[in-house]
Amino acid sequence: LALVEPKLRPTGGHPVAAPSDEGAVVARIERAVLERFGAVPEGEIWIGDDAAVVAGTGGPLVLATDAAVAGVHADLELVSLGDLGWKAMAATISDIGAMGGRPLYALVTLCVPAGVDVDQLVAGVVDAGRAWDCAVVGGDLSGADQVMVSVAVTGTLDDGSLPPVTRGGASPGDHLFVTGELGASAAGLRLLRIRRTLGTDRPTGPSEYGAMDTESDAALVVAHRRPRARVSEGRAARAAGATAMIDVSDGLSLDLHRLAVASGVGVELVDVPVARGATEEEALGGGEDFELVIATGSPQRLIGQFERVGLRPPLRIGRCTSDRAQRTLRGGPLVLAGWQHDLR
Amino acid sequence: LALVEPKLRPTGGHPVAAPSDEGAVVARIERAVLERFGAVPEGEIWIGDDAAVVAGTGGPLVLATDAAVAGVHADLELVSLGDLGWKAMAATISDIGAMGGRPLYALVTLCVPAGVDVDQLVAGVVDAGRAWDCAVVGGDLSGADQVMVSVAVTGTLDDGSLPPVTRGGASPGDHLFVTGELGASAAGLRLLRIRRTLGTDRPTGPSEYGAMDTESDAALVVAHRRPRARVSEGRAARAAGATAMIDVSDGLSLDLHRLAVASGVGVELVDVPVARGATEEEALGGGEDFELVIATGSPQRLIGQFERVGLRPPLRIGRCTSDRAQRTLRGGPLVLAGWQHDLR
Question: Under 8 Å CB-to-CB from A163, ≥6 apart: which residues?
Answer without folding.
Answer: none
